[in-house]
Amino acid sequence: MTTPQPPVAKKVPTERTHHGDTFIDNYEWLREKENPEVVAHLTAENAYAAEITADQEPLREEIFNEIKNRTEETDLSVPARKKGWWYYTRTEEGKQYAIHCRTAAQDTGDLDADWTPPAVLPGVPVEGEQILVDGNVEAEGKPFFSLGGLAVTEDGNLLAYSEDNAGDERFTLRIKDLRTGELLPDIIANVFYSLAFAPDGTRVFYTVVDDSWRPYQIKAHTLGTPVEDDVVIYQEDDIAMWTGFDLSADRRQLLIGISSSEYSEYRVLDFADPTDTVRTLIPRSAHILYEAEPLTLDGRRQYLLTHNRGALNSMLSLVDEAEFDKPLDEQQWRTVIAHDDTVRVNGAAVTATHVLVSVRKDTTERVQILPVDGLGTGAQGSPVEPAFDEELYTANLANAEFDSPIMRLSYTSFLTPPRVYDYVLATGELELRKETPVKGGYRSEDYVAERDWATAADGTRIPLSVIRRADLQRDGSNPALVYAYGSYEMSMDPGFNVARLSLLDRGVLYVVAHVRGGGEMGRSWYDNGKKLHKKNTFTDFVDATDAVAASGWADPDRIAAMGGSAGGLLMGAVANLAPQKYRAIVAQVPFVDALTSILDPDLPLSALEWEEWGNPITDPEVYRYMKEYTPYENIRAVDYPKIAAVTSFNDTRVLYVEPAKWVAQLRETTTGSEPIVLKIEMDGGHGGASGRYEAWKDRAWDYAFILAALGARDLLPAAKRENAA
Q: What's the rounded Cα separation, in Å, for the pair 205 and 197?
């Protein structure tokens, strides 16, 4: 049988010179998205990927069906109360997209009755249900569909929603009258994610991105007026700053956040001010990274600040509004939660009676609750933290309306499907509202999730989360998959994943390496994996792989690696550093040509990357350092393992050209014979194709590629019996 031959991209040498260094790029021409020759090449890449992995199609079908058979396809979220309505989403078997709904709430004065969500059962019609947005109807006849923002007026009469039909994260905003079901004539194109109504419902606020996809404008549209008359509330001209907004919890102010990863600035607009004056709290020149949440205590407007002023892991302070009129060093800030070297303070939210704080301790994200009475004084109470049984879990604030007597928590772990709890603020009682059902006979006791550690070359201990079947034998024969991200202080927190069961049931040891550059171990963990410390991210992953290989659980010759986006850059880097350690690598939407992208501030989001990687345009040391690790420039003549680069044609965060160039150069340079494939979704964005079934197919493709490479296509006998039962 003839071995399929990959497409060969033509070479068009392009010179790139910076700081006296010239790099010859033979494949930069693939950036020409409208060029028919480029489209033809990408089409040929898809055909080659399909041909070279054709034998995996039955396995993909198996995994897809396993995901489908374990998923409650007709399901509902737990309704969340806002004013006089319970809002929820539901899904129906055979349909790709969620349906967003609501039903009326009651106010009887009985706390338990009024705040107990209505009973909703899969497949059973909800009394009084009103459909807000049916994603299946909206997506009909469109190549792609994704909802951006959803917002309802305070009186519950109007809905604003936005949709993307290309995958490029440019949304079209529409407004629906929920009393009649009719769409208003107001249509606004090219908006970004954030949406909010003014409290009186006469205006809707939205964000706009510039040519490089950076959100830079906050605009207000007055209903019934021409879109061209929309007012720019705020415009941010610094190309390295990201702009967003939210409403204050008490709906009295618009909060505009302007930030990089290292410092920020908040500006506020009081809705009672007819001049729409936007005031600055702490200017960016102070170089403080902070978030602000206003509240009124003892009749005075105050701000709860989560900040890093003299606090590497951040802390919580309370500041009177009038203090911001003084020079920074004269302001009086009262401590609410002091700095702790072992606890990362992530942020805070407020209700009328309590402050809800998100913290990270021992790698785990959890929630703490404080009453507002006595806040920032000697009479302040101690924080209360809801307790859970598992060692590795994630607890987040899911919802807390300002006047609500309850707060809603989401909880999950590697072994526990997502749960929704209501925490009664007055009593501390924790009420389980729902655990996401997992069909197909899933039992958490059939699996184990545990903490392990790897040691980096510099002595740093790297936390590993290891998930496996409980009946797996520690005999050194098992296949393993190591996953990581490691950038932007993003933490890879414990969470349940139905698709992952398909790996575990085939005997795969699944390891999450919490490498430096993420946020799992506090701010210093991030700082030691960015800019001129970025190589730690890559070497940590290789050291984690070595620890897995030496653990007694895994066969050193049957280890694969996977990561996406910045984690895809990580995949490219470790492929160059230690190709011999991996049987296969899957790089999802991989940022593998990072230096080329960041050197061009006109490319989407490039200038925003300077705070993460450094600025190679102006700093020759950053240029030199990046040039030493960026995957595309460091491909070398070695035997590369099987590699799959998975991307989307309309991705605006990591352009398709990066993996396209990377794959072409890998094939040209490798001394090995393993296939290197590019799979490109021609109608997708950064998250791939739209629709849940398409997402399951994408995951099945990735996992089948890995399982085939690891020689682990078949279910373990015990798993086969469980699935059959």
A: 6
Q: Can you name the residues that pair with 396 across neighbouring β-strands?
A: 410
Helices 36-52, 657-669: crossing angle, 10 deg rounding: 60
d(CA 516, CA 714): 35
Structure tokens at 292: 């602000």
pLDDT digits (tens, 9 = 90+) for 391-450: 899 999 888 889 889 999 999 999 999 999 999 998 889 999 989 999 999 999 999 999
Q: Which two tokens stand for residue 584?
A: 């296969």
> Cα 605 to the chain's mean position, in Å?
16
What mean pLDDT is reported for the chain? 92
Query: Which residue type, as a one-letter code, is found at position 12?
Result: V
The set of catalytic residues is 565, 651, 686
The answer, as to whether pTM is greater than 0.90, is: no
Collapsing DSSP to helix, strand or coil, 95 comes out as coil
Q: Which amino acid is at 118?
A: P
> How many C-alpha atoms does 377 have within 13 Å on its Cβ side?
8
The secondary structure of 43-94, three-state, reads HHHHHHHHHHCHHHHHHHHHHHHHHHHHECCCEECCCEEECCEEEEEEECCC
Buried b (16+ CB within 10 A) or exposed e, 608-636: bbbbbbbbbbebeebbebbbebbbbbebe
CB 162 within 8 A of CB 174: yes
pLDDT in tens, 153-206: 999 999 999 998 877 788 999 999 999 999 999 999 999 988 999 999 999 999
Q: Which two tokens stand for residue 100?
A: 């967003």
User: Cβ-count burial of 300 within 10 angstroms (0-12 exposed, 13-18 middle, 19+ buried)?
Assistant: exposed
133 strand-pairing partners = 100
Helix axes 620-629, 535-549, angle to 10 degrees: 30
Angle at alpha carbon of residue 612, lines to 609 and 618, rounded to 5°: 65
pLDDT digits (tens, 9 = 90+) for 291-333: 999 999 989 999 999 999 999 999 999 999 999 999 999 999 9
Q: Is there a contact between 175 and 204 (Cβ–Cβ < 8 Å)?
A: yes
Write a three-state SS string for 391-430.
Answer: CCEEEEEEECCCCCCEEEEEEEECCCCCEEEEEECCCCCE
Q: Write phi, then psi, for 435 (nearest 5 degrees).
A: -120, 125
C-alpha neighbours within 13 Å on the C-beta side of residue 53? 29
Contact 340, 313 (CB under 8 A): yes
Q: Using an 8 Å Cβ cutoff, are 230 and 186 in contact?
A: no
Tokens, residue 82: 């806002």
C-alpha–C-alpha distance, residues 226 and 188, integer Å: 10
Gap between the Cα atoms of 571 and 665, Å rounded: 15
For residues 247 and 270, give the distance between their C-alpha atoms in angstroms, rounded to a whole number: 10
Total Cβ atoms within 10 A of residue 251: 14
- C-alpha count within 13 angstroms, C-beta hemisphere, residue 605: 13
H/E stretch holding 151 reads: strand 146-152
How many angstroms from the chain centroid is the CA of residue 228?
A: 33
In terms of DSSP bridges, do strands 195-197 and 183-191 run parallel, antiparallel, or are they unpaired?
unpaired
Q: How far apart are CA 493 and CA 468, in angstroms?
A: 17
Residue type present at position 163: E
* Positive/negative CA dihedral, 162, 163, 169, 170: negative
Please, are residues 207 and 245 in contact by the beta-carbon 8 Å criterion? yes
DSSP collapsed to 3 states, 246-315: EECCCCCEEEEEEECCCCEEEEEEECCCCCCCEEECCCHHHCCCEEEEEEEECCEEEEEEEECCCCCCCE
CA distances from 405 to 114, 115, 352, 425 (A): 10, 8, 9, 6
The DSSP bridge partners found for residue 399 are 408
